[in-house]
Design a protein that fits this description.
This protein is α/β, with parallel strands linked by helices. The protein contains 23 helices and ten strands. The strands form two sheets. Strands 7-6-5-8-9-10 form a six-stranded parallel sheet, sandwiched between helices. A four-stranded parallel sheet has the order 3-2-1-4. Helix 20 links the parallel strand 6 and strand 7.
Length: about 500
């Protein structure tokens, strides 16, 4: 609803009423949701929202004759969730359930909306209710698995995802999320197998089909293989740690598709490969210039062949090579700001709002770290001018930032900047992948239930030997993590204020 942010509340309400008259209920609900986020007790917005929800809950069909509301109402609910309006989605679901108490589609959406808001206990109860209504409802077991994972009940979550797959064998999202849990717990053998469902689970990231067969570990001598880009920038960097393993299989040619911003960095680091920054083209017509291609493989499938166990991870400091000219430029720049150690920081991560909440640390909490005897450099991507200003106001410490350092546009420069630092301290985001890949000491601050790649109960990472993990003891409590980081700074570098 960014297009409505410049409106006054009165104008927004008028727009919502107009959308209601036009039948665009999802638009109207989203506007009311945004208003109530800023002014929860606004009388006009609350009354209008309640009136709209009651209208949506009515149906010409008797609840005794139908289990589900009309599809347009379900679609409106789904659109609300896709737009991040989970409060409105929850309220609308509850209103609909008054007339359709056994509507599994509504209960399923409600469980998801509750989970996204962190209302895990309520979400689990809704999932149990769905299972009671329909014991073979795979989606209920899947949603229950998500909730149990958030609650830290990992073994129970595995059982719930497995139950969903048992009832619906081609349930791609259940396979994908089960893979993440198995990998988190170190079961690489089974984890990578389920991980192969990931692209079917991420329909919004579907690749253009390629005609050549998938590589399943066949001999590659005198063969040409096409490595396909997938997932996010950080994932591309992490899976690139398997590129050298692929080179050792001695193919005739390796063609790598990647994000165009990674082209110079990958080309320098892997000269044996044909690096093609074509991911954004949304087609593979360019592949014709390479002639016959024997196999294709997704980047995320490489670990299934080269990382079957913890013992298969190589012990190497780095695998990406920064631009030497840019690296020297940054070293000189950092030398000019003083002799104290240079620490890069990043404090936000995650693409969805629920992920951002678990991967972001409030400015005030950083104060003990920022007041150490060091120079701090901004590594946060995106517009963070306001954040930096807050950091400086809270700590009284200057955060160094340069206009030509933009990780969203120039990743080769970003890698060189990181390589010139003494240390990186960051929340779990793509910054830590670049830092780990170039071999700079990197301290990653992880949630209580971390992303699968960081595993459990260890303070290092098999993917990046330069990484050290600082884990939450309890969910939503970053104070203990910051205390550990401060203690480590004092011990490793003697950085008393």
């Amino acid at each position: 609803m960014s297009k409505h942010r410049s409106l006054t509340i009165e104008q927004a309400i008028a727009q919502a009423k107009k959308s209601t008259k036009q039948g665009d209920f999802a638009e109207a609900l989203q506007i009311y949701d945004n208003i109530l986020k800023h002014q929860p007790q606004h009388p006009v917005a609350r009354k209008a929202l309640h009136k709209l929800q009651k209208r949506l809950s009515r149906s010409k069909d008797s609840p005794a004759l139908t289990l589900d509301p009309p599809q347009d109402q379900i679609k409106a609910l789904i659109n609300l969730c896709h737009s991040g309006s989970f409060v409105s989605a929850e309220l609308t679901c509850r209103e609909l359930l008054r007339n359709f108490p056994r509507a599994l589609s509504v209960l399923n959406i409600l469980a998801g909306a509750l989970t996204e808001q962190g209302k895990f206990q309520e979400a689990e109860q809704i999932c149990d209710r769905m299972i009671q209504l329909k014991p073979d409802f795979a989606e209920a077991f899947y949603n229950r698995g998500l909730v149990l994972q958030k609650l830290g009940k990992l073994e129970d979550a595995i059982k719930s995802f497995s139950a969903a797959i048992q009832r619906k064998p081609d349930y791609a999202r259940a396979h994908s999320d089960l893979a993440h849990l198995l990998l988190l717990l170190g079961d690489f053998n089974n984890g990578w197998k389920h991980h192969e469902w990931r692209m079917m689970a991420e329909k919004t990231r579907d690749q253009v089909p390629a005609p050549m067969p998938a590589w399943n570990g066949e001999q590659l001598q005198n063969k040409v293989i096409f490595v396909r880009a997938e997932q996010g920038i950080g994932d591309e960097v992490m899976f690139a740690s398997c590129f050298q393993d692929l080179v050792t299989t001695n193919p005739k040619r390796i063609i790598v598709e990647c994000d165009s911003r990674l082209t110079p960095l990958f080309a320098r680091s892997f000269p044996e490969m044909d690096i093609q920054g074509k991911r954004e083209s949304k087609n593979i017509t360019w592949l014709k210039e390479f002639g016959n291609v024997d196999y294709q493989v997704g980047m995320g499938s490489l670990p299934m062949f080269f990382r079957p166990s913890l013992d298969s991870f190589p012990d190497r400091k780095s695998f990406l090579q920064p631009n030497p000219v840019l690296l020297e430029t940054w070293r000189k720049r950092f030398a000019e700001i003083g002799e104290a150690i240079k620490i890069g920081i990043s404090w936000r991560g995650g693409s969805r709002e629920s992920m951002k909440a678990s991967r972001s640390i409030d400015h005030q909490l950083w104060k003990p770290v920022l007041q150490s005897d060091a120079h701090f450099v901004n590594l946060q991507y995106g517009d963070c001018t306001a954040d930096i200003k807050q950091f400086e106001q809270v700590s009284g410490v200057h955060i160094y930032d340069w206009e030509d350092a933009d990780p969203l546009t120039d990743l080769d420069n970003f890698a060189a900047q990181i390589s010139a630092l003494d240390l990186v301290i960051s929340i779990d985001n793509s910054t830590v992948h670049f830092a780990g890949a170039v071999g700079i000491p990197t301290w990653v601050l992880t949630p209580n239930v971390p992303d699968w790649r960081w595993m459990l109960e260890r303070d290092d990472s098999p993917w990046y030997p330069a990484v050290r993990l600082f884990r939450q003891n309890d969910s939503d409590n970053w104070s203990d993590v910051i205390s550990k980081v401060k203690e480590a700074l004092d011990k490793c570098f003697g950085l008393q204020h």
